[in-house]
Amino acid sequence: MAAPSRTPPGTWIKAGLEVLARSGPDAVRIEPLAKTLGVSRGSFYWHFKDRRALLDAMLDTWEQHSIDEVLAKVEAEGGDAKAKVRRAGMLTFSEELVPTDLAVRDWARRDPAVAERLRRVDNRRMDYARSQFRTFCSDEDEVEARSMIAFSLAVGKHFLAADHGERTRTEVLELASAHLFS
Q1: Sign of dihedral through CA atoms 34, 38, 40, 46?
Q2: Where are the domains of the chain?
């Protein structure tokens, strides 16, 4: 007799991340996820001890996608430091990753453990930016300022609702980027 097929843990994690991005961490519940996936709750418990274990696995996956995989892609593509910083920002805050990143940021405001995880990820992102800016900036104050501005621009552009006069948002972002990397 063949063993029953089980829903892989990655399927649960992916579904959980989609719910997180759309509705926040409180909406990540086992029963609705099982229903969405068309499986029983028992399938969940085959892979995860409890909801907290799923949430932790989701954060592990978010961290891997948003920092480890992004940096691996950037380094594999190569280029000069300016290109690498731009590419890291574009990948990190891509349409695919940014909804989850923003949801984790919101979640971190209410959960100290998530805040610590976000701090670790952001520190790795900033360390990478610093390492790249150091290749063409010798002043450590300038390195820190450029890293902070680049990172703030990447995150903040998703929250800013201001108009830009005759310019489009894209034009202003390109002007800011040109200034930052000049």
Answers
A1: negative
A2: 9-180
